[in-house]
Amino acid sequence: MTMDIRLARVDSRLLHGQVATFWTHAVRPNRIMVVSDTVAKDNLRKTLITQVAPPGVRANVVTVNKMIRAYFDSRFDSFNTLLLTENVGDMVRLAEGGIDFSKIGINIGSVAYADGMTMVTEAIAMNPEIAKQVRILTQDFHLNVYAQKVPAEKKIEMTGLLEKKNF
């Protein structure tokens, strides 16, 4: 048996109000796993993230490799997890490490804009590298990758959004 991942979400803001309020209510996790090699090394960001977890839900910040090990470790089978990464590349690494997202797919909540990127939704910016990572998830791992900011919104398939913007 493995840990129960109830939502796998890419959100450049990681754990914030929408996630802490709407998503935790919708998926009912007992654990939020923020997966980021960068944040795991930043004690201030780690502390802030663990402090904003909603009541009754513990938050942990771990590296990509540590998350892969925990996923296959039976000591963590009781975790009903909301998994967050700040970029699509980390989701690809988790999938490559054997984490099974086939039942839930990958939710893209927000990808922050930077120079040279194109907005594909009001909250998701893309460039060719990120579009390639989305295609790895959809084509190589056969995952449903979709945009959805909050649970009440309709899911929008990312491949269609990429095609509309010529990615």
UniProtKB/TrEMBL annotation:
Keywords: Cytoplasm, Kinase, Phosphotransferase system, Sugar transport, Transferase, Transport. This is PTS family porter, mannose fructose-specific component IIB. One of its GO terms (biological process) is phosphoenolpyruvate-dependent sugar phosphotransferase system. GO terms for molecular function: kinase activity; protein-N(PI)-phosphohistidine-sugar phosphotransferase activity. One of its GO terms (cellular component) is cytoplasm. It comes from Lentilactobacillus diolivorans DSM 14421. Residues 1-167 form the PTS EIIB type-4 domain. InterPro entries: PTS_IIB_sorbose-sp, PTS_IIB_sorbose-sp_sf. It is found in: Cytoplasm. Coiled coil: none annotated.
